[in-house]
Amino acid sequence: MAEKVRLGIIGLGTQGSMYARFITDGLVPNMEIGALCDIDPAKKDVAAENYPDAPFYDDYIAMLESGDVDAVVTCVPHYLHPEMGIETLRHNLHALVEKPAGVYTKQVKELNAFAETKPDLTFGIMFNQRNNPLYRRIKEIVDAGEIGAIRRTNWIITTWWRPQGYYNQSEWRATWGGEGGGVLVNQAPHQLDLWQWICGVPRSVYSKVAYGFRRDIAVEDEVTAVVDYGDGATGVFVTATHDLIGTDRFEILGDQGKIVVEGSKTATVTRLKRPERELSDGLSLEDVRKLFKGEVNTADYYEQEVIEFESAWGGQHAGVLENFAANILDGTPLLAPGSDGINGVRLANAIHLSSWTGREVPLDFDEDEYLAELNKRIAEEAKFEQRN
């Protein structure tokens, strides 16, 4: 078997150019550029200047049929991810789709179902935050039961400040027909994935979402969602693109501890000596008096650990590319299997649908109802074709 995977990059924009640079700079030692593809004629000159040895195509099907690539990454608008992923697998090539896996669950289910018919091919998704050593360690702690059963989660992630000029740079950006949504499908998919990857998939969601709240756009720029995990456990997710200062704080409360993550860089892990209810029931009236007077020795109740990892910029993306190639070459387990991509899309869809209908929505919502509501908004824009 070849020592390097020949990657075809569809879309030589910001993301595709970044991946190409990582590969040529040696950050992905088991991968090389097989070919480049973009429908923008100007990108051909860019490719010739920066990657003269890589064949360039303006038709991705032609690239898939060229024999120049072993695998493909889809750095294109969101609606195209499932379509291109399916075509890549249909041509018996390995597929790495960008996030989100798609815009609505019906198209992502089609992608996942087709991938299941190609078990010998590698199907991944670019969830680079799963390669963040901090979040990988947090998942290990939660999975090992070190903070007990999860009782509540909260994630405020508003570090996505985008000025109006950002939205004005393209006709398709921040539209229902072109992009499929706002902050939930563009900026926050990584957090929607990590939240469920670490804490589990909720049963239902109720949301309050503002569309064009602080920006002149059709899609959402402010989101507050409350999820229900069952058994009394709940979670809250808050995100926005108009907070200039921004906050990134993730809390996971268990019945035997708590994790607080600040800035996706530092986590404080508190482990209780006994389950919280046991500690509560075991306090005497004298203990309660000491508690309110601040005389309690906290070491009798819990211990704390601060976790911090250095994560070099680009290292997470390059690591996902390297892991994807390793899975192809020697079967190394994938950090982010492509089939997991539906989780974030499903939750984003449920948040939208809840806000559109004003009701709590189960995660197994009516997909036809969602698509009808989405198409209603696409029709109102009168710029793009409706979806099916």
From TrEMBL:
Segments forming domain Gfo/Idh/MocA-like oxidoreductase N-terminal: 6-119
Top-rank lineage group of the source organism: Bacteria
Domain GFO/IDH/MocA-like oxidoreductase: 135-259
PANTHER family noted in UniProt: D-GLUCOSIDE 3-DEHYDROGENASE, UDP-N-ACETYL-2-AMINO-2-DEOXY-D-GLUCURONATE OXIDASE
Name of protein: Dehydrogenase
Organism (species): Microlunatus panaciterrae
